[in-house]
Amino acid sequence: MEDFAAVSGISRPTLSKYFNNPDSVRRSTRERIERALSIYDYRPNIYAVNQNRRRTKNIGIVVPNLADPFFSEISRVVELACIAAGYSPLLLSSHGNPAQEGQNLEALRSIKPAGVLLAPFGRLSERAEIERFGRDFPVVLFDANIESACEAFVGTNNAQSIDLMVEYLCRSGEPPCFFEMKSPTNPNANKRRNAYLESMDRHGFPPHIYQAKGDGWDFEVIGSSEGGRLIADGAFKTNTVLCSNDRLAIGMLSAAYKLGRKVGHGADCTLRIAGHDDHPFSRFTCPSLTTIAQDYAAIANLAATTLFKTLETDARPSERVETLFEGTLVMRDSA
Amino acid sequence: MEDFAAVSGISRPTLSKYFNNPDSVRRSTRERIERALSIYDYRPNIYAVNQNRRRTKNIGIVVPNLADPFFSEISRVVELACIAAGYSPLLLSSHGNPAQEGQNLEALRSIKPAGVLLAPFGRLSERAEIERFGRDFPVVLFDANIESACEAFVGTNNAQSIDLMVEYLCRSGEPPCFFEMKSPTNPNANKRRNAYLESMDRHGFPPHIYQAKGDGWDFEVIGSSEGGRLIADGAFKTNTVLCSNDRLAIGMLSAAYKLGRKVGHGADCTLRIAGHDDHPFSRFTCPSLTTIAQDYAAIANLAATTLFKTLETDARPSERVETLFEGTLVMRDSA
DNA sequence: ATAAGATTTTTACACGCGTAAAATATTTTC
DNA sequence: GAAAATATTTTACGCGTGTAAAAATCTTAT
Predict the structure, then answer these.
(1) pTM of the entire structure?
(2) CA distance to partner chain A, nearest, from residue B205 (Å)
């Protein structure tokens, strides 16, 4: 920078000001700098910069599993929002492994992030660690909520979205059974089950919950094996199944196909299957999957802007804010 | 570090040595340090560290599109390999946008990576930029090759894998037509087309290539709309279609289902569809997709270790090495 | 043209750590 | 137990930038 100052005829402190905020120098100066920049292609050493800055411009993004299209999509939006706001996002996936989540947060500490956008697993075991991390850095949670931790939460209103789906299914045919994993990795699963119970109660139908054994992130495998078994056994009390998420539904649809069961809302169909999340592949299942679309973009952008606001005002907000977006019904062929 | 040196009773230079390589200090000293570390939880400032190190321990990983399960899976393996080798991976997705690839490389420059693992789009337009980047940093390419650039390439042998599939399809039924995008985003697509042509020639069958219009990364959409149109029109000269990749096949399968065409190798089937890549969802299509499995893990690990070797010897290899892994046939129900 | 205000330059120190060289302490070897 | 080999400490400098304070320069309004 010393050298660049020499050849560009600008003093080093002014250059420093320019690189921190191009608008903080006089217009004519900025133009001179940019002219010189186009010739000498100098760029500040980011390590020296971050060493001296009080806060870095880095933002950590941590998601449970990038292999899940839901997270790869939502983190894409988050990432672009960070870049647009002038921050440097650092995307970390926990690869479906809750222990990795802690390691990721630990790794983030060493880059001294300005803030963190975290979609937590939401298990009890990691709660304390996240709370601690949230005290040390500004953190906005998304997708999965941990009531006791961090500045804010942005997600989908599962009560509303499940109720919407139950309502639709009840109006258009038999009331739904509910299919989920026995030990879900995500608090949303519990919210959805409760929402189903409440909604069925409100509609005056008895609930029927079916829980699949198995853990991990191979939801399709579990949906296919366990769901297929339930179908084959004729276990479902009604001809309609609401799956806790699309990936389970995708597995179950493939099992139904293998069993020769015709799924859909047509007259010749004997089974209806619905999901939740509007997974990218739900348009291409056979039949295409009726589901609930979460507003990915809205969730991602609000989470990001909420964090940015915290960073700019530099004051931790006095009270925790939770924002829930509504899901929308996507009527396709499976239910 | 000064303070930590004081309270731990170890000199700062020794601590510095320890943090760069815990084994470079005497055993007893290391234990004293680690005991103190467990009490005071000090950690080196990574920015000060990287400012002074000749080379950082950062490794950039750039993939065209994390939303594509192929890349999310392979980059997961690559990422873990980097961590296991003591490096700090930085995962960047170009979000399906070739221009973003250049921006990602540009962003990587400022973190002065020790090396980069790059799965390029492979378009002509970015060639020069990648070559230039490859001269400034050690880069190992994977998935898509650019003959003229970087240290090494690791990928799948498309000629072998396509031949394997063509061989199987010819043995088990009518010889395949080939379905692909007209203007593919990836050089592998061209390799596969040529492999198909050669293989059909070798088997003594006339080739039939069908190219879908459309660009971008919505392969399923294109496979569904264009592939569906071809099916409806009875355009395919044989009853067997080999798709250039699984995502096209997934789209085409959904179109076939909508058209009421029974796909598979059974007696009652009128159409066979095969893919390439063993996409995570190919097990759950209806019917499940016969395809070629790439050895994700082998490709990812070899790419990573090849880069590490370059970094450790500190010498750019004299000649470029290309390694191709063989694909394996995954026989499922669709063909 | 001139004074007030805004911007830039000069000067200087700080950040936290890598690293080199010489002195000292510790361990190993015979 | 002494000498040799090894490890640690001391001392000092450098990395590339942020930032503060005072001086110098430029811009704007009168």
Answers:
(1) 0.92
(2) 32
